[in-house]
Design goal:
Strands 1, 2, 3, 4, 5, 6, 7 and 8 form an 8-stranded mixed sheet that branches. Strand 7 (203-207), helix 7 and strand 8 form a beta-alpha-beta unit. With 270 residues, this protein is an alpha/beta fold. It has helices spanning 22-28, 84-112, 126-136, 143-151, 166-176, 191-198, 225-234, 257-267, and strands spanning 4-8, 33-36, 50-53, 56-68, 71-78, 179-182, 203-207, 238-241. The longest helix is centred in the middle third of the chain and has 29 residues, at 84-112.
C-alpha cells in the first residue's frame, strides 16, 4: 500500500495541481506524505524542509536535470532549504527554461500554423506546451501524441536546453537537501552508468510508473524494477518512489509505510 508519493509536480512548474489543493487530493489517494519536486525550482510557498498541512506531510523537494558524460539524468533533492548556491542555480536554470520554452512554442506554432494558448513564463515545461496543443488542435487528443509527434527528443519542434553538470548539481543539492537521489533509472537509454552514479548519492527511485502516459519508454533492457530494488539494498541506498504526477492523480506509485519510515528518519536529521 502506497502511503507516500515522493515525486509530484505542481503549478509552480509544469503540473496542473495547485499547492492549496494538494492535501485534499492526497487524502483521497490515501496518502500520508507527498514530496513536491517541481522541475528545477523550489516552491515559493514552502518555507521549511517538511511542512504539515491539514494532516499531510509535505516534503519540500526539487527535481534537477544535470549533464553527465553518458547523457542527462534527473536528481531528486528532498528536505530542501534555500541556500545561496541553490537559489543562484535555480535562477540560472529558470532563465534558460523560459528561453527554451519560448523557442519550443514558436517552433510548434510555426509547424502547426496556428497559435497555442501557453505563455513562456517561469516554470514552463514541455507538458504545458503539450496540453496547449491538445486544447487548440483537433488533430491531438492526448499529451503523449504531442510528445511523440512534435516535442519529444526526436521531434521536429524539440529544443535542447542547457543544464548544470552532475558535479555542480550534486554538490549544490547535497548542501541544501537532506536526501539526494537518482530519479527513474530505467527511463535512461542505458541505466547502468546512471545506477553507478546513484552509489555516490543517498537514494535511488525504485517505485515509478514506467508505463505512464507522458511518452515514457518504460522499463526495458536487462534491468528491471526488482533489480533496482536489489541494487538499493546492496548499496545501502534509501528507496524513494512516486507517481511523477503532472496532473491530479497521486499515489500511482510511491513508498510503503516501512519504506517511508526509513526515508523520514533521514529528514528528521535536519
Amino acid at each position: 500500500m502506497v502511503v507516500a508519493d515522493l515525486h509530484v509536480h505542481t503549478t509552480n512548474s509544469d503540473g496542473t495541481l495547485p499547492l492549496e489543493d494538494l492535501p485534499g487530493v492526497a487524502r483521497r489517494a490515501g496518502l500520508d506524505a507527498v514530496a513536491v519536486t517541481d522541475h528545477d525550482q523550489l516552491h515559493p510557498d514552502l518555507d521549511r524542509p517538511v511542512t504539515d498541512r491539514d494532516g499531510l506531510s509535505i516534503v519540500h523537494g526539487i527535481e534537477l536535470r544535470v549533464e553527465t558524460a553518458f547523457g542527462r539524468v534527473d536528481l531528486l533533492g528532498y528536505g530542501a532549504r534555500r541556500t545561496g548556491a541553490l537559489t543562484d542555480l535555480v535562477e540560472r536554470v529558470q532563465h534558460d527554461r523560459i528561453e527554451r520554452g519560448r523557442a519550443i512554442v514558436e517552433a510548434v506554432e510555426s509547424y502547426l500554423g496556428h497559435e497555442i494558448p501557453v505563455e513562456a513564463e517561469r516554470g514552463i515545461g514541455r507538458p504545458d506546451v503539450a496540453r496547449a496543443v491538445v486544447e487548440s488542435d483537433p488533430d491531438y487528443d492526448d499529451v503523449g501524441s504531442v510528445f511523440g509527434d512534435l516535442i519529444g527528443g526526436d521531434g521536429p519542434c524539440y529544443v535542447r536546453r542547457r543544464v548544470p553538470s552532475v558535479e555542480e548539481g550534486r554538490d549544490v543539492l547535497g548542501e541544501a537537501c537532506a536526501v539526494v537521489g537518482l530519479a527513474h533509472p530505467l527511463r535512461y537509454p542505458d541505466p547502468e552508468p546512471a545506477l553507478d552514479l546513484a552509489t555516490e548519492l543517498d537514494a535511488v527511485e525504485v517505485h515509478y510508473p514506467y508505463d505512464g502516459d507522458r511518452g515514457h519508454t518504460g522499463a526495458s533492457g536487462p534491468r528491471t524494477v526488482e533489480d533496482v530494488a536489489a541494487f538499493a539494498d546492496e548499496h545501502d541506498l534509501l528507496v524513494t518512489g512516486g507517481s511523477d504526477a503532472h496532473e491530479r492523480e497521486l499515489g500511482v506509485a510511491g513508498l510503503s509505510s516501512a519504506e517511508y519510515e526509513r526515508f523520514a528518519a533521514e529528514l528528521d536529521e535536519l
